[in-house]
Amino acid sequence: MEQKWIKPPVETRYQEELKALRENDSGLRPENWKLSPKAVRTFILGSQKEIHYSGGVCRIRRKYFGNDALVERSIVTLAGNRGLMLVGEPGTAKTMLSELLSAAISGVSTNTIQGTAGTTEDMIKYSWNYALLLANGPDRRALVPAPLYTGMEKGIITRFEEITRTPAEIQDSLISVLSDKLLNIPELGDEGFLFAAPGFNVIGTANTRDKGVNEMSSALKRRFNFETVQPIREAAMEKQIILNEVESLARENHVEMEPDEDAAELLASTYHELREGVSSLGHRIDRPAAVMSTAEAVSVYYQTMISGYYYGDGTMDVDCLVQNLTGAVSKENKDDLEKVRAYFSTVIRDKSSREGGIWSRYYEARKWLK
Ligand SMILES: Nc1ncnc2c1ncn2[C@@H]1O[C@H](COP(=O)(O)OP(=O)(O)O)[C@@H](O)[C@H]1O
Ligand SMILES: [Mg+2]
């Protein structure tokens, strides 16, 4: 029987695309890379033409929308053996990009350290199996590899999520590994070295909202090329992302309901305008303090969709959409809800009188903003 997961890793989710790319890949490949930089780019940014491979025909879907040059630079950074640090607001697809890069380059996206205030060096480098350690003394069999060790040993990418949540002195344990590609294991005496296999590299992500929590040291910063991932600036693109994402979420969770374009449009423009501080009709808007991220918009939409699927009549309910929006914006700050209410009573009111239809229903649903 086929194994099922709630959220399969990228390499499983896009198994066929990766296989098709591999079979058709004639580009130059850095040592130990599964795909050439050209094919990695195609995997992330998609391609128009269909490709033939042993499994049939396949079209590579675009997965990241926005800055293509950033994706190219990131791949080049990794091909040049420099660490890559993706920084930006929450919900700008930093994690998604690092998973896509990892899956395309190394074939796995799961060799990951999750940075938290409690992350220790053990969780990054290695620890010991104490039973074996006591029985045989320190040798390699008693060593329990952590993601950095695994990446160096196998020649694959180690992802370090939310690195700035980790105390600075712990972050700094990466410095010598990144510059010398060598890990010291003092417990093993003369044999206490692990040299990194080709293909090893580190992709870190950091949220600018965490800035100042545990600022990275300048020594560590020098070991990475930084790329700032910007929020989407176009409402139309945001709408497309919402539709793409909820469509695949629904497919994976066997929710048999077609995404509704109009509802995606409402939500995309709401998130876009609240983030930008100006409406398409020219109103100035007081921006909420919370991050109005695309990821959040996807989750509000999907939440509404599954309510409609399980409780409703299988369509998107605008009242429910506004209730979920309320939950999302009032999470951090009470004043934000007031700002969204003001947005409804100006911008949505005007759109409602111009466009009618779903905009009027959206305007009427403002009673749920409480
Ligand atoms: N530019 C984008 N292209 C495609 N999807 C995006 C983009 N920005 C945001 N998303 C959506 O939002 C989610 C971002 O989540 P994530 O990668 O966890 O963000 P971050 O790590 O930056 O907080 C993605 O999974 C995707 O659904
Ligand atoms: Mg993230």
At the first level of CATH, the class of the largest domain is: Alpha Beta
Q: How far is it from the N-terminal to the C-terminal residue, by CA? A: 48 Å
Query: What is the name of the CATH architecture of the largest domain?
Result: 3-Layer(aba) Sandwich
- Rg, nearest Å: 23 Å
Question: What proportion of the residues form beta strands (DSSP E)?
Answer: 5-15%
Largest sheet composition: 5 strands, parallel
CATH topology title of the largest domain = Rossmann fold
> What's the average pLDDT?
94
Shape: globular
Helical fraction equals 40-55%
Structure annotation, total helices: 17
Tell me which ligands are bound: adenosine-5'-diphosphate, magnesium ion
Low-confidence stretches: none
* Beta strands, count: 11
Helix and strand run: HHHEEHEHEHEHEHEHHEEEHEHHHHHH
Question: CATH H level of the largest domain: which superfamily?
Answer: P-loop containing nucleotide triphosphate hydrolases
- The side-by-side strand order for the widest beta sheet comes to 4-7-10-3-11
Short recap of the structure:
With 370 residues, the protein is α/β, with parallel strands linked by helices. It is built from 17 helices and eleven strands.
